[in-house]
Amino acid sequence: MSAIEKVCTFLKEAGTYYLATAEGDQPRVRPFGTAHIFEGKLYIQTGKVKPVSRQLAENPKFEICAFKDGKWLRLSGKLVDDPRLEAKVSMLEAYPGLKNRYDAADGNTQVLFVEDGKAVFSSFTEPEETLTF
Fold first, then answer.
1. Among 50, 72, 122, 125, which residue has the fewest nearby CB atoms (within 10 Å)?
2. Comparing C-alpha atoms, which of 27, 109, 102 is closest to residue 65?
3. Domains of the chain and any CATH numbers
4. What's the predicted TM-score (pTM) here?
């Protein structure tokens, strides 16, 4: 399993993860639930009308934290906007429940991929594992 696949699987199995961004000098954290691989990259989804979209446009650095089964993941890097329709369609096909709020061509749906990803898997009982992609 590749590093991206391992991270994506962990995020999906966790169900909810927490995405941290910055607004000026103030950290902002909120729950997210999308994790999808498209064209070999790890993607998440949001709406352009949300503050998180503006925060990432101003500063693309992020950190995600997820926890499941006594293990946690911290993922950091940059989130890069992918404006292509096919990337949005792929995400919405992977998460059909989003289709009641989003449409690939609505001007609001935003998909972002991880660039310079660093994933650290930790627990209290096992050594840390660091993966980059």
1. 125
2. 27
3. 3-132 (2.30.110.10)
4. 0.96
